[in-house]
Predict the structure.
Amino acid sequence: MQLNRKTEEWQRIDAAHHIHPFTNPQVIAKEGARVFVRGEGIYLEDSEERRFIDAMAGLWCVQLGYGRRELADAAHRQMLELAYYNTFFKTSTPPIATLSERLAALTPAGLDHFLFANSGSEAVDTAVRLIRHFWNLQGHSEKKVIVSRELGYHGSTLAAASVGGWPSMHAHGDLPLPDFEHVIPPYWYVHGGDRSPEEFGIAAARAIEQRILEVGPERVAAFFAEPVIGAGGVIVPPSTYWPEVQRICRKHDVLLVVDEVICGFGRTGRWWGSETYGIEPDLMTMAKGLTSGYVPLSALALGPRVARTMMQRDFAHGFTYSGHPTAAAVALENIRILEEEGIVERVGSDTGPYLQEQLRNALGDHPLVGEVRGVGLLAAVELVEDRETRRLFPENRKVGELCWERCLAHGLIPRAIRDVMALSPPLVATRADVDEIVRRLAAAIDETAGLLRVAGK
Ligand code: PXG
């Protein structure tokens, strides 16, 4: 294998043969991919030896940062011991049995049983299939409709993209499938109007109830949601939202599925977004931070109500790699480090609040910034045309993209979601790292404002 090629060579073979997710191949062919070659802590280095702070932890997943030897060692040890075996035919392996026990202790009370898969999408897809089967077994075969939110992101399989509320994804592949319904997200900045965030939080929850009543509660199987919408724009719900959602799901006998793929494993300053928002899920999905992204692994956790039924019989579902022992060994080591180094507690009590405070100090009054929002080490800066009226820029001005380019020029990788600059740095980021992230982002936003003034003339 040739690993010492020049950047142009990597770009050429990549553009010729590799189809990238969510990316126009023509653009990649013209501009060439940025090729990352190594990572250390919160830093990434590209094939031109440029260094960047990865303020997105990969794709919201590298909780421990890059280059952790313990995770590599755990994979190496397990690969030599028993690299792979399946869990289909009354078989198990020590890592996956141990991980199941660890997760039962770590997840909120009652979530004690786990199905494993490789990606967040597969965990969500598994949840959809399991819920249909569950209600059939309960004698409620008419309960099929899944309600979720516009802008929610739940993955790319047919079912996961149907649960998701992205028109751009629905347009590719004739989605959503039948029996998926979407309601407004708790996005106060855009949908709140004159209402206080608290009033609007109740209204956004009632939109779910309204839809349940329109469809008929006897037909609604489940409500799926992220505690904080991540890829849809880091949409932090008003404090009134989740208690009302919980009440509505219970009242109408609708299962509550909490997608913890981004919020899980400390992102919001507690182990689970469900803890941060006081949610009691019937089912929970997790992936990303479970292994800090070092190897693929995801899980679906079952609460007591669903487990009581599903633990009585077989479920004809699973993947070759369900419960992969090497992935499980990495997850166990990842959890050990998160615990022993007190990383989640530090995000909750120190670095998380510090990031939120520093962002507000640096950017809260900036003329280009409509809102700074976030929780834990998850944050967003919404760039707007008019702060007073909360008017967004027209999409074709591509302000987020412009700002993202300025960030890269300063050696910072955030994520631009529309004109929302999102941050989700590794959870090992220190206060000094946070200072540097905020400094670079603020410089990029200043430059963006300057460029827009020039362009506006
Ligand atoms: N649920 C949530 C909440 C997610 O954020 C998935 C499910 C699907 O996980 P997999 O492992 O199948 O990708 C995700 C994934 C982005 C971006 O552009 C976000 C995700 C994936 C890819 C890109 O921010 N989140």
In short: The mean pLDDT is 97. The radius of gyration is 22 Å. The domain at 34-67+342-454 is CATH 3.90.1150.10 (Aspartate Aminotransferase, domain 1). The longest strand covers residues 369-375.
